[in-house]
Design brief:
This protein is α+β, with helices and mostly antiparallel strands and 290 residues long. The chain is built from 11 helices and 9 strands.
């Protein structure tokens, strides 16, 4: 299983060409921005796929080439999980009967010219996709956590009905505003602005902001700030330069008990115990390398 993440903002229009000659199944999650993917296959010819934030897709096209075009000065956040059919077949086990017929052909190694499926991301898919994205971006130290989140995301994606109806679309202007709010919350996560302040600053009613955040990012404004803070805490622990109190203060928690409770609820372990185990692991690894 291979995980790739793109988090970029190009100064000029940017395009790249690619060639694929393998049988990996590709799951793509589009978290921010939009781009155009032109794919050329022997079976279907040239196909233009438009991808935007809040969408995801999966497919397997053994032999193809094409190009991807990214617009200038627009934030792009994309995450892909590439899985070998044998690996996915093993993970699914008895659940193989529940996947789409096209995917089942690939898993059973039957003749298939390839397929691509695109959907809107349900809230649970969005939430886990964002958790995985920030886990990777903030250098989550445990590979097991990343792999577990990746498998959870695959399971949720495969559970989305093939005939799932479209969700309410957001207009481009509202999407831009919501992305701007999210970027500000990331920058000011230790002392974030209130909903009222954001509403005044961006001329957006609080109800519309909350509903838009839920639609676009799969979680409320408060949940986003909390998740971002806790992922930052894991990153600081991994860097090993601060104790628990310093980490809590750095991410905006003034009450250590509240931070410890939130961290344990999110990751299943108290931050003090987590940091101790992490340092012991690093010390042991360092000793083995000598």
């Amino acid at each position: 299983m291979i995980l790739t993440v793109l988090d970029a903002c190009f100064s000029h229009d940017f395009s790249l060409e690619f060639t694929k000659n393998n049988t990996l199944i590709d799951f793509g999650f589009f978290l921010e921005g939009s781009f155009i993917n032109t794919v050329d296959t022997l079976a279907q010819g040239s196909v233009e796929l438009k991808n935007g934030a809040g969408e995801f897709g999966f497919g397997c096209v053994p032999n193809m080439c094409g190009s991807v075009r990214f617009p200038a000065k627009r934030k792009i956040r994309i995450m892909h999980i590439h899985v070998h059919p044998f690996t996915l077949r093993t993970l699914l086990g008895r659940d193989m009967e529940q996947v789409t017929p096209c995917l089942l052909k690939v898993l059973e190694n039957k003749r298939c010219s390839g397929f691509v499926r695109q959907h809107r991301q349900p809230p649970m898919v969005q939430a886990v996709a964002n958790e995985l994205f920030y886990g990777v971006k903030n250098s989550a130290d445990f590979r097991m956590y990343i792999e577990g989140k990746a498998m959870e995301l695959l399971a949720l994606s495969l559970a989305v009905p093939s005939n799932a109806g479209p969700r309410t679309a957001l207009c481009p202007k509202l999407r831009d505003i919501l992305h701007a709010i999210r970027e500000e919350l990331e920058e000011r996560h230790a002392a974030p602005p209130t909903l009222s302040e954001l509403s005044d600053q961006y001329h957006l009613p609080i109800a519309n902001m909350q509903a838009g955040f839920k639609t676009l990012f799969g979680m409320s404004v408060f949940a986003f700030i909390k998740e971002y803070r806790l992922q930052r805490a894991k990153k600081f622990f991994a860097e090993g330069n601060m104790n628990v109190s310093e980490v809590a203060w750095n991410i905006g928690y003034t009450n250590l008990s509240h931070f410890s409770a939130a961290y344990k609820k999110r990751f299943g372990v108290l931050p003090k115990a987590y940091l101790k185990a992490l340092r012991e692991h690093l010390h042991t690894s360092s000793g083995q390398r000598r």
